[in-house]
């Protein structure tokens, strides 16, 4: 067994390749089968072929500084996404409260039946007969 085949065996999600005989299984070469470089065999995504690597230059971060900058940018974007999601939730809560206040100003008997997950009162209106 080569070093390239071992990580695939210990991971939960394996890339299963079917062969016809046991001799083929023993002599199986993932580099040749996947048509990629030995360094890229363990990648689970974006595994470029040798042909693709020859034809185009892939812009990959080389230095640790570039990797750190990319990580910092990703963290900033996740933080922005989290704040946007929080803002959306707050606006939804405010909209619900305004809608409830508008309904309370209207006609009809109402009864407070409890509180929602944000602590706002929940009302139930008695069905009135239409005349």
Automatic annotation (TrEMBL):
Keywords: Nucleus, Ribonucleoprotein, rRNA processing
Gene Ontology cellular-component annotations: small-subunit processome
Gene Ontology biological process terms in this record: rRNA processing
Main localisation: nucleus
Cellular compartments annotated: Nucleus, Nucleolus
Any coiled-coil regions, as ranges: none
Domain of life: Eukaryota
Pfam families according to UniProt: Utp11
PANTHER family registered for this protein in UniProt: U3 SMALL NUCLEOLAR RNA-ASSOCIATED PROTEIN 11 (PTHR12838), U3 SMALL NUCLEOLAR RNA-ASSOCIATED PROTEIN 11-RELATED (PTHR12838:SF0)
Function: Involved in nucleolar processing of pre-18S ribosomal RNA.
Similarity field: Belongs to the UTP11 family.
Name of the protein described by the UniProt record: UTP11-like, U3 small nucleolar ribonucleoprotein
Classification lineage: Eukaryota, Fungi, Fungi incertae sedis, Mucoromycota, Mucoromycotina
Name of the gene this protein is made from: UTP11L_1
């Amino acid at each position: 067994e080569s070093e390239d085949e071992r990580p695939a065996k210990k991971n939960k999600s394996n890339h299963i390749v079917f062969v016809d005989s046991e001799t083929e299984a023993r002599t199986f070469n993932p580099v040749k089968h996947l048509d990629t470089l030995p360094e890229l065999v363990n990648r689970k995504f974006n595994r470029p072929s040798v042909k693709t690597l020859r034809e185009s230059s892939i812009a990959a971060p080389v230095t640790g500084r570039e990797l750190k900058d990319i990580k910092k940018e990703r963290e900033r974007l996740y933080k922005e996404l989290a704040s946007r999601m929080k803002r959306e939730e707050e606006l939804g809560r405010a909209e619900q409260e305004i809608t409830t206040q508008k309904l309370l100003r209207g006609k009809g008997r109402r009864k407070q039946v409890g509180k929602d997950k944000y602590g706002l009162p929940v009302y139930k209106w008695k069905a009135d007969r239409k005349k």
